[in-house]
Amino acid sequence: MFELLLSGVVATSIALYITNMSESRREKRSNSQNYILAFYGSGYMAHRDTLLDFAYDPAIGPDIATPRSKAEYAGWLMPEMDSRPEIRVSVSALAEFMGAARRCVEDNSCESGSLNAALGPYSVSFYDLFAPILVEMRCNATGPDGFPPAVDPEDDVLFFARVDPAQISCNDV
Prior knowledge:
Helix content: over 70%
Largest sheet: none
Shape: elongated
Oligomer: single chain
Number of helices: 7
Distance between the termini: 74 Å
Number of domains: 1
Number of strands: 0
Structural class: mainly alpha
Strand content: under 5%
């Protein structure tokens, strides 16, 4: 009799565990899908289009493609950023979005695989083109207390772009 009761308790515990795991997976999948839908939705698409228009602007395009050192590229890009505030706004908005997605993965509330698959390829290109502005955001960022904030926009992009943050320095800009 005791074995029967014990096996019933074990079976119930296993069923509850499986149900809980299944609900957790569904919630993580749903959270991930919400981020992906937002990224490809009209709000963030407008920011991506702004950056795409900048990169493919006939007056700019050849300059972006010109091989040069990081310092030379930053020296060319930063004045362009200053003359086009909408570029800086879009870079900032996308970096903040990637930060929220990164925190969702790190909090174990989102599936890292699906977010990496959806955001990774864009993040690589985004970082390649706008690294100087992301590094500047990181190096010049101050929180309400006057210290750098805990959230690092450059590292948020690097997370999805699979770039090692240790290779980046404020001296690169």
